[in-house]
User: Fold these one by one.
Assistant:
Number 1:
Amino acid sequence: MSSLDDLYRRVIMDHYQKPRNRGKLEEWEGLVINLNNPTCGDSISLSLKVEDGRVADAKFVGEGCSISMSSASMMTEAVKGKTVEEALELSHLFSELMQGKEIDESIDLGDIEALRGVAKFPARIKCATLAWKALEQGIKTGQS
Ligand code: ZN
């Protein structure tokens, strides 16, 4: 195992064990999107507050494997405060990362970078993208 893999693994476990933005918004505060990934048994309930074209708040609760939960934690951390366009752009980048595509090196993905290796394990890609799918669905719902 290379030291980079080791570092990535540590970042993933850190988010899994200490999830950021864990919780739920009240119904009047925002939208709640429930999604699951039956192939692995992951489920996520994402709360999203979209205000003035920005992701004003994002929280999640869920159960599942370390990949799905750490990805949800990283996602909420990454999109909070961003504009809807920026959040969707990041979601698009993440999906490219999961397809194993090379992405612009100058883009700072922060902790999300740690999930890069998941692209090599097709069975786990749905675990990693679950939270992002919930985000996209929430933004779509929030805009209509
Ligand atoms: Zn999973």
Number 2:
Amino acid sequence: MTTATAPESRAFEADVAKLLRLLVHSVYSDRDVFLRELISNAADACEKLRYEAIADPSLLGDDPQPRITVRIDAEAGRLTIEDNGFGMDHDDLVASLGTIANSGTKAFMERIEAAKGEGPEAASAQLIGQFGVGFYSAFMVADLVDVVSRRAGTDQAWLWSSDGQGGYTVAPAEGDDAPLRGTRVILHLIEDAKTYLDRLTLERIIKTRSGHVPVPIAIVEKPGAEAAEVGSGAALWTRSRSEITAQEYTDFYHSFAGQFDEPALTIHARAEGRHEYTMLLFVPGMKPFDLFDPDRKGRIKLYVKRVFVTDDAEIAPRYLRFVRGLVDSADLPLNVSREMIQGSPILTAIKKGVSSRILSELEKLAKSDVAAYDKIWSTFGAVIKEGLYEDFERRPQLLDLARFTTTTSGDGWRTLKDYVGSLKPNQTAIYYIAGDDAARLAASPHLEGFRARGIEVLLLSDQVDSFWVSAGLDYEGKPFKSVTQGAAELDLIPLPEAAPPQDAETSERIAGFVAFVKETLGEAISDARASERLTSSAVCLVAPDSGMDRQLEKILAGAGRIGAGAKPVLEINPRHDLVVALAAGGTDDKEAREDAVRLLFDEAKILDGEPIADAQAFAERLGRVIRRGLG
Ligand code: ADP
Ligand code: MG
């Protein structure tokens, strides 16, 4: 290009050198973003032209289709980002590129805001970015940046040029290099940024960072080559739901999330009102391998006006971390730092809206397609249940979404509504048994008394279960109560075939035996008592009335979060023939009775999945008892 007059030199309107260094070295930790920023600016300029052309169609001339072209000139070490958007004149260049942190876009946004009353087009103009540092990210990869621009509706093109060291020049630009309309940003790449001259690298960055910019993007591989389109300028989620086929959604899910399965649920919705955003979310059909990896992040990407901003915004709560997809906000600024976005009240509102939407869509599915919902629950229920203690506000909703295996469920799932619908007379609690082994739970002696009375018990075998059940929740006024905790109020609920009460003599003997058990086991237990809980086993261990659920206690102790748990209560079945016989045995053979009591205690521990601390003593005791039995 040639310049008619000597270029004027100006200094940046701030201590730009310092700011640039800060920008290049800290604000943007990831160099690839320069391309996103320049493409965003180009797209902004196209949007701005579209908006201005509403009032003055002549601005479009004979080139009405917006486009962005990325040109590679490997020989010259130059990368050019070009658009046929609104462009800049002399004063625009000085005002927009000469003033750091003063954004022309921002001023434009204010104009749009003011114009909102005048027509719907004004409000819908999509502009990216309100922070005036975006352009300067070019200096992360270039030591000289030329901007040649011609503002729509003007004849004169201008060349702005800077090495990013604190000053710039502006001069009229002539000749073939000056665009007819729009802007050409020419980056003279520094040596270690020459990787950005590789077409495939650029394609990858454009696809991941700007693939959904509303303007078509093409790459010209070398001077004179044909332009090859990289992005079509159409973002799936901006189209209306009725125009999108199931296959298109699935294809998008596959390419966007890198998945291969069929999504189990697709949520595509637009929020309007105070905040405008679109969400396109997928519940995967398969469990990802790292679902329980504590470092696993949420997978919902945040876009601002179709420009990818971050996948680190934690848009959904942790208990929905399996959901994939994106949220595209029309209100957020395309911010320079994640931290600033994180603190934004707009993002807070989006998070809330997205979480509610996911849950309400799950609710809908649970009603409309039970099999599909049950499949989602089987895959992700253990994660969703984390919400029961993490998300106080949505707890009632989550309790309704929860599905359970119970002592009466067979192969199907039961809801809490089902459960409370089949309460026994006088039953005031929702009973559960928690543990890590579903088969052992179902066989636990703790369940005997409940089974005998036909009381349903939730079988909770996910790690997370012990946590939420101990959070003091209730469902429809019914508290959750562990069958291992305290004396279950079984006495109040009649047995279908009540056993005849034991005669006074037997009762007295049993009481004597219980006292003997207490004396024998001493410090090892906190109490011993006769119990209605058992029907076929002789003994079982339960938590003291005020104690923590024994399963939770074990998990916490295992994680080193608490010391050794509270001592258990040993419950004794007064109708069990062993117990009756031992109680009748008198005090004659004290050693034999002590051995028997200790073995019963060991048995209770084994049934509870607890190791026997002193295996040697156990073996000796067992040996003595067998020998006695042999006569
Ligand atoms: P932001 O995009 O957040 O406003 P930038 O630093 O990226 O900040 O850009 C500063 C300003 O420069 C923009 O607001 C715009 O007015 C102007 N600008 C940058 N690139 C272009 C372009 N390709 N076409 C027209 N104007 C541009
Ligand atoms: Mg910008």
